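Hi all, long-time lurker, first post. I run a small reading group and we've been trying to get comfortable going from sequence to structure in the token notation. Rather than ask abstract questions, I figured I'd post a concrete chain and ask someone more experienced to write out its structure so we can walk through it together at our next meeting. Sequence below, copied exactly:
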Amino acid sequence: MSGLWPVALWSLSVVVAGSAGATEAVNEDVPSAFSFAVVADLPFGPSAEPAMADLLASIDASSASFTIELGNIKGHDEPCSDTLLETRKSLFEGIQKPLVVLPGANDWLACAQSADSTYDPQERLGRLRELFDPAHESLGQETLAVARQSGMRRFRDYAENVRWEYGRVMFVGLNVPSMNNDYRLAAGRNGEFEDRVIANHAWLERAFKIAESRHLPALVVAIEGDPEFQRPLRPPDRRLTRRDGYYEFKLQLRELAAHFRGEVLLVHAAANGTRGDEPLTDVQGRPLRNLVRVQSFGTPNLRRWVRIDVDTRRAHVFGVRFEEAVPAASLPASAAPGSGSGMPDESP
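-- Answer (accepted) --
Happy to help. Here is the structure in token form:
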């Protein structure tokens, strides 16, 4: 296959009403072969902001059609203030191509543990929604049409849960953070977790149903937290000292992927990128071959990003590359799309 594909056009984006109450976002006039970028955990501190700017400039100069930022746009120990969030948003707004930002644990959950903060995590999540989740479009100077779960009356608070179709591939982003998905052992403290699990379940199920009804060949699921696939997939035992907060997500993902005729790609945050593995087994203990997991780069690896190549004409839709960022000052003023590291393609 060829090394790079031309940047897709955003000449027509369609948002139509969906039967479940939310809108459906179909970005049309997209070729069957395209690529997108995945990043996370950046920047952790003001000193990392220049490296982040270089990274985003490199993505803009590449063939990637859009970027998914999986969350953690601030360090665990950084302030949870509006000022910091607005500063980070301004950095993202400089990107030319569409950008979808998901919430990470550092961005809201960790605010309860910050030494200089008395912020309530759910209030901070609400502020993230206001800043980073415009109604029916992504961030970026060029935008994607997206559907948000907040379009459904029952789930009007969950604007961060997002979905869009691009090049005959369904993309769905969910609020599944690290810190054990905010499950807490103390009794009576899991209202946020329980409500969000219900919302996520409905949103993920809806995405698969739409993909099946439209006979799409592939679906991408994006989250921040590492679901800890190494843990046995067993019903939670309340006698355990640490309950698996990702159990419900993994159980549903296994069921939906097992019945989906196409390929499923899960991307989540990690410090070191991983090209791909098959993290789940079916009920008989056999690997789910159509479900592949790729982990992103993040702090301290701010010079690398994951590029996912997509070609719906192939038997294996997804290919993975690791790209190197270059200093923004060294990029030409009119950097032509299609530049990249030239690393060989490697399908997961």
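A couple of things your group might point at:
Helices lie at 49-60, 82-93, 121-132, 191-213, 247-259.
Residues 1-13, 15-21, 334-348 have pLDDT under 50 and may be disordered.
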